[in-house]
């Protein structure tokens, strides 16, 4: 993980870069403390990407926001939405 992240800008956990697991543990703790539903960081990213797509943002424009090196990675996050939109558009055409 340290090879991908600039340690000067990465959150720290006792002097070490904060891992996804430790971030999610803290996030769950804080959500519980304030009484809101917990969503993992992965679920938050997935939801954010889906919301952007639903708002009409093109996958190619979502890609850099998520920090993905390939469009295929972004399409993984929005794949279900693409399928739903395609099905909905096809139903409108055939109606």
Automatic annotation (TrEMBL):
GO terms for biological process, alphabetical = DNA integration; DNA recombination
The record lists the membrane-crossing segments as: none
Q: Sorted alphabetically, which PROSITE patterns does this protein's record hold?
A: TYR_RECOMBINASE (PS51898)
Sequence segments annotated as region (Disordered): 1-20
One annotated GO molecular function is: DNA binding
Q: What is this protein called?
A: Tyrosine-type recombinase/integrase
Q: Where is the Tyr recombinase domain?
A: 1-95
Q: Which UniProt keywords apply?
A: DNA recombination
One protein family per Pfam: Phage_integrase
């Amino acid at each position: 993980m340290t090879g991908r992240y600039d340690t000067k800008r990465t959150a720290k956990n006792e002097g070490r870069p904060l891992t996804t697991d430790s971030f999610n543990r803290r996030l769950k703790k804080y959500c519980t403390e304030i009484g809101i539903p917990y969503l993992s960081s992965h679920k938050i990213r997935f939801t954010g990407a889906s919301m952007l797509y639903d708002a009409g943002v093109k996958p190619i424009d979502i890609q850099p926001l998520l920090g993905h090196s390939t469009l295929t990675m972004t399409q993984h996050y929005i794949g279900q939405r693409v399928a739903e939109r395609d099905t909905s558009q096809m139903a409108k055409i055939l109606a």
